[in-house]
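[INFO] parsing input record for DUF2862 domain-containing protein
[DEBUG] input buffer:
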Amino acid sequence: MEIGQKVKVCRLRDRVSGDIVGKLGKIGTVKDFKMTDGSGVGVIVQFDDNSATWFFEDELQVVN
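[DEBUG] output buffer:
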């Protein structure tokens, strides 16, 4: 994944708030990366409503 790519939220690993559950199936743009708790790299995704949150890479799918 690269900054600027479009991605779709395809699954959620953990229990999360309702706001984040609402992003399931949505498409957003990769804005940045973030170090997680040692289990990998998180991807910060911004959506059309200008909200942004981070996901694990395996929760996202690149959209062409």
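[INFO] The beta strands are 6-9, 27-35, 41-46, 52-56, 60-62.
[INFO] shutting down worker
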